Amino acid sequence: MPPHPSLSAPRLAADPIHPVEAMGPYELCWCRSGKKYKWCHFRRDQQEPINVFELEAKMISELRDGYCLHPDPSADPCSSTIIKAHTVQKKGGLSAIAEDGHVLTVKPTMKELIETEGNPQPRKIGINNASVFPGFCGKHDTALFKPIEGKSLSLTKDTAFLFSYRAIAYERFAKEAQLRGAAIQREADRGHLFRTQAVIQMQQDAMITGIRIGMRDVERWKSQFDDRLRSGERDDFHFLAVRFNQVLPIVACGAFHPEFDLQGNPLQKLGREGIDFDHITLTVTTFEGETIMVLGWVGADDGPAKALTDSFLAIEDARKADALLRVLFIHTDNLFLRPSWWKALPEADKNILNEMTRSGTTMRMRSGIEMADDAKSFLFADVAEVTRG
After folding, report:
1. Is 258 exposed, middle or buried (0-12, 13-18, 19+ CB in 10 A)?
2. 8 A C-beta contact, residue 345 and residue 378
3. Hey, which bits of the chain come out as E strands?
4. Is 92 strand, coil or helix?
5. How confident is the model over 295-320, as pLDDT tens digits?
6. In which element (H, E) is residue 369 found?
7. What are the beta bridge partners of residue 285?
8. Contact partners, residue 231, CB within 8 Å, separation at least 6
9. Residues 6 or more apart from 311 whose CB is under 8 A from it?
C-alpha cells in the first residue's frame, strides 16, 4: 500500500479565538457565534447560569429533529412521517442480544457523567430506542433497506453496500446534529467571570472546528454513496464481511477514519492540510443465530481502508472477535451490548473497555498501541465464513 499523503502533510494551521473583555455593542462578538456583542457576551457574567440538564435537553431535542436523507426526494417523494430508523435492525439484530427487551448503550447521559466524575458505565436502553435516528421517512427506510431486514441474509456486494450506506447516513445525521448542539453549548459560560468565559469558549471553538472538518468529510462520503445508490455502480465499492459461528454479545453501526491498523501501523493522520481522508463503515448484527460483521468503503483498493481490512484478516480466526470488539469500543458509540455479558466481565476488563470509549477525545489520544493490544481476551468465537468484494 502506498503511504497515505496525510502521513507527511503539514498540520492544519491553528486559528484560535482571541477573547476580548469589552467590545463595541454592534461589533461581531469575539466568540464567533455570529451575533453582535450586545446580544452575546455583553454582561455575560450577569446572565443566569445555564442548568446542565437544560443544556442536555436542548441537545437531545436536536437529535429528534429529523429529515429524510434519501438522495432523490423530488424524483421519489417522501412519505409524510419521519421515523425512528434503526441503524441495526430491531428483529434479529438488537433482539438477538437483548434481555427483557433491553440492551446496554455506551452513550452516557449528562447525569451519569456528573455522578461518576467522568467515568460512566454502559446503561440500559430499550430496543425500541436503541440505535435509532430520525434520518429517513417511513417509505424510503422500508424501500432502501428491505434486502437487509429479513430473517436471512445473502452476503453480496449489493447487501454490503446497503449496510455501508445506512452507516454513512447515520454519521451524516449525527454530525450535523452535533454541530447544531455545539451552538447550544456556547451558552455554557453564562453567569461566569470573563476568564472562565474565555476558557469555555476557546474549548468550544476548538470542538466546533473539529466537528466542521468532520462534517466536510462525511458530506463527501455521503455524496459518493448517493451517486452509487442512484446509478447502481459498485465497481469502486469494496467490502469485507465475516460471519462468526455464534451470536456475539454486541451489535453496532458506524463509520470512521481508519488511523491505525490492527498491528498498530499508522494509516493516515487527521488534522492535516489539503487532504481527503479515507473512510470505512462497520456494521455488526445478527442473522440466523450468527453474528455478521461488514466493513465497507467507496474509493481506492490500496488505501487505509483496505489496509485495515487486511490487518483484520491477518489475525488468527480465534482472535478475530476480540479484534472486532477493540475496533468497536475505540471507534463508535453507536454500540450495544448484551447486559449479562457485560455484568459477568471482571471489573478490570470493564475498565479497559471503558477506557477505549474515550479514545480520540481530549482524555485519550488515539494510538496504534490500543489497536494492536491483544493481551486481553473478551470474546471467544470461530469464523464460519469470509467474503470479500
Report:
1. buried
2. yes
3. 82-86, 102-105, 123-126, 132-137, 237-244, 250-256, 280-287, 290-298, 335-337, 383-388
4. helix
5. 999 999 999 999 999 999 999 999 99
6. helix 368-372
7. 292
8. none
9. 261, 262, 263, 265
How far, in Å, CA of 259 to CA of 327, rounded? Answer: 11
Model pLDDT for residues 315-337, shown as the tens digit of each residue:
999 999 999 999 999 999 999 99
Q: Strand 335-337 and strand 250-256: pairing?
A: antiparallel
Per-residue confidence (pLDDT) for residue 116, from 0 to 100: 73
Q: Give the three cell numbers for residue 220.
A: 463527501
| First vs last C-alpha separation in the chain | 18
d(CA 366, CA 348): 21
In this structure, the strands spanning 237-244 and 132-137 are unpaired
SS (H, E, C) 212-229: HHHHHHHHHHHHHHHHHH
Which pTM does this prediction carry?
0.93
How far apart are alpha carbons 95 and 338 in whole angstroms?
Answer: 10
All three cell numbers of 320? 478475530
Place of cell 469500543: 329
Cell of 108: 452516557
